[in-house]
Write a structure and sequence with these properties.
The complex is a heterodimer. By secondary structure, chain A is an all-beta fold. Chain A has strands at residues 5-7, 10-13, 19-24, 31-37, 44-50, 53-57, 65-68, 75-79, 88-95, 104-105, 109-113. Helix content of chain A is 0%, strand content 49%. In chain A, strand 5 (44-50) and strand 6 (53-57) form a beta hairpin. Chain B is an all-beta fold. Chain B contains no helices and eleven strands. The interface between A and B is medium-sized, with 26 and 23 residues.
Amino acid sequence: DTGVSQDPRHKITKRGQNVTFRCDPISEHNRLYWYRQTLGQGPEFLTYFQNEAQLEKSRLLSDRFSAERPKGSFSTLEIQRTEQGDSAMYLCASSWAGGGNTIYFGEGSWLTVV
Amino acid sequence: ELKVEQNPLFLSMQEGKNYTIYCNYSTTSDRLYWYRQDPGKSLESLFVLLSNGAVKQEGRLMASLDTKARLSTLHITAAVHDLSATYFCAVGEIRDDKIIFGKGTRLHILP
């Protein structure tokens, strides 16, 4: 069990470019979450999957954001036409389905849009 | 809409002292989480509380849950410098799989 891993850990991109983040959850965890955190704030929920099904998307997630989990294992989060307001840490987490299970977070992917 | 409030948001305290962080939430919940975050790092799970009256302890940290008051506390006993970090509570609504975080309590323990 190697924990939740995210890649890349840091990304600097120019405004208007597209970026993609990858998350590998703890093996066999069927639930996968994406959160966004800005400096001095708590993580904000973006979206989550159970297996390959995307079950909920936050109103915060504009049409420029898309997430996939094609085979129910790893997930990608793509941001199109990045804006400076997208600069944040993007956190992935995974767990077993069922209330009360621990949700484990990855190290995060830092995005800076210049 | 579920809202989670923590207080205080910032706490500076002396080593050896005791203190409590409070987490209030606005709707019925069936689970509450406490996490620790060091600067620039991810979130480390500390406790998961599932029932009214639940109490969990790990070292100098003790968490409790009062579902009727919609309140959880994180109590720090005889603080040491290594406990300096930001502590978040997060709450899950019944029949909702996501969890919602508070703004965090930034704890600074002075030697």
